[in-house]
Amino acid sequence: MFPQMRSMTGFGRGCADAVDAGVRIQIEINSVNKKTLDVQISAPREWSGYEATCNEWMSGAFQRGRVNVQIKVESTQGGTESLALNTTAMAESLKGLRTFAESQGLEFSPDSGFLLDLARSVKDSSGLPDWKTLKDSIQEAFQAALADIDSMRVQEGAALATDLTERIAELESFRQQIEKNSTGSTLRYRDALLERLKQLKLELDVSDERVLKEVAIFADRSDISEETTRLACHFEQFLSFLNADEATGRKMDFLCQEIHRELNTTGSKSNDIEVTRLVIEGKNALERIREQVQNIE
Questions:
Q1: Separation CA 257–CA 103 (nearest Å)
Q2: Long-range contacts of 238-243 (CB under 8 A, 24+ apart)
Q3: I want to staple 10 with a disulfide (CB 3.0 to 4.6 A). Which of 81, 106, 137, 152 is the partner?
Q4: How many other CB atoms are there within 10 angstroms of residue 288's CB atom?
Q5: pLDDT at residue 249 in the model
């Protein structure tokens, strides 16, 4: 029912083997909420110049959100080559660390765990192929990861759309009740006014010009027909966004602000207790909608 709506939150993974190079490419992509698009790509530190190509592969996949891409390269030649020690770099690092520790009056006693972490941080990566020679495999893994995260985002988007449809229906129910309760409010105000005047021993006829003028002013001031009509239009437009063939999260967020504005005006115009209660209920429901909209692309 909602084929295009996507959540900004998702995770995807894709793998591809570069058989000739003896390595496996693994791409992990995760995305979270953000008003603008922010893409961060990380890859083996020996690579450079890959960002532009990766961004081309991702073009159009995300409209907004914080997107983190991690490119990993693993050897498929077996565990014996999983860690190539760069003993020269390790020795220099240990020497520098020991000198620094002594200058700070700190004890320096590296254990096996420390040495393993150091070996990993300075491992000899001279055998890592240039990323351009692995371009086809990287792209293959990229496309798989993009398809994986898109599937998750679409699935969550459909769940959000269903939830939002129910919440808008709840707001529409409040709107209809507000309209119902506002009907006859002018007559109720007239009767209450005459009753108060009667209690003050100021007997006035219903057709008295002063009474009619006061009632007319009240009717004009408390008329909420425009507000309820605009609310109905806003709800209809909100539902249309759920089926739009584009990213509509920003539009929904703006529409929530407009709905809040109309509810505020309705509450300030009406002096009916039940209408006031319904406006408060509507604002609470709208706040839950706004929280959900923050997850939509």
A1: 60
A2: 238/164, 238/168, 239/165, 239/168, 242/2, 242/5, 242/161, 242/164, 242/165, 243/1, 243/2, 243/4, 243/5
A3: 152
A4: 13
A5: 93
> Whose CA is closest to 61, among 18, 14, 25, 24?
14
Q: Count the alpha carbons within 13 Å of 145 in the hemisphere toward its beta carbon.
A: 27
Q: How confident is the model at residue 82 (pLDDT cuts 50, 70, 90)?
A: very low
Q: At 193, is the pLDDT very low, low, confident or very high (cuts 50, 70, 90)?
A: low
Q: What distance lies between CA 131 and its chain's CA centroid?
A: 33
How many Cβ atoms are within 10 Å of 109's Cβ, its own excluded? 7
Q: Tokens 């709506």 appear where?
A: 5
d(CA 129, CA 277): 68
Q: Where are the beta strands (DSSP E) in the chain?
A: 10-18, 23-32, 37-42, 65-75
Listed residue (201, 202, 226) closest to 214, CA to CA: 202
Residues 130-148 have pLDDT tens digits of 899 999 999 999 999 999 9
Pairwise CA distance, residues 58 & 51, whole Å: 11
For tokens 């759309």, the residue is 161
